[in-house]
């Protein structure tokens, strides 16, 4: 295991440079670290995104990144977290492995077990906020042995890193609690406006919200960005449901939220994804077509 975590400069591998991952890479470069990624098997969009970041080093293959990295940070959709951990451990990685994905404490423990099997040290993580493009917008919470030392090395860019005391998977627990509300309530709101449209009372509901809860009309109209990320949020809802169940709490709502987001995966990364009444009409049609296909 690499033990010189107090050296001045980290060599960090990012898996992978999606919209969030690329902002993490930029922030770590700004903090004075050498940051790498591997282009093998990545999409043209990811490759183009990476080319826009000066000083982001492409190792080509994953084994090159694993061999050179003192710290690897995983930033992938929740459903891919375990697979990425397996790929890294299979190459004999013995450095620091920070999983920054939206996963339950249960899944985080499985990831930890996987990377520790090759001699790596696991650090739990969770990102709250949008891609880090402005100061104060986004935080990376981390927990576990070594979290305090690592946070000092990662800070210095637009992404603020905060070490948490307590359980080794405290960062994942915090992420699940936070997203359980923000993304869970977005799914609930999408379902409510679709229910109102289906039952012919959408306009009446909107008028009542104008009188009593005007912020809900605004939020309904701006659900588009959540709809565009529904393909990613579905897995996150399933992880939140696991977290509720492990705490002895009912988990049915977030399982339903996962199902609703799955219905909206057709809008993946669509900058024109609908909100408000257009979303209600679209989701109503999707559900109707789904029912027809089941007959």
Quick recap:
54% of the residues lie in helices and 13% in strands. It has helices spanning 19-30, 44-51, 62-68, 81-90, 105-116, 147-154, 170-198, 202-212, 214-221, 224-228, 230-246, 252-263, 276-294; strands at 11-15, 34-37, 56-58, 71-74, 96-99, 121-128, 139-143, 160-163.
Summarize the structure in words.
This protein is α/β, with parallel strands linked by helices and 295 residues long. It folds into two domains: 11-168, Rossmann fold, CATH 3.40.50; 175-294, N-(1-d-carboxylethyl)-l-norvaline Dehydrogenase, domain 2, CATH 1.10.1040. The protein has 13 helices and eight strands. The chain has helices at residues 19-30, 44-51, 62-68, 81-90, 105-116, 147-154, 170-198, 202-212, 214-221, 224-228, 230-246, 252-263, 276-294, and strands at residues 11-15, 34-37, 56-58, 71-74, 96-99, 121-128, 139-143, 160-163. It has an eight-stranded mixed sheet with strand order 3-2-1-4-5-6-7-8, sandwiched between helices. Strand 2, helix 2 and strand 3 form a beta-alpha-beta unit. Helix 7 (170-198) crosses helix 11 (230-246), helix 7 crosses helix 12 and helix 11 runs antiparallel to helix 12 (252-263). It is elongated and about 60 Å long.
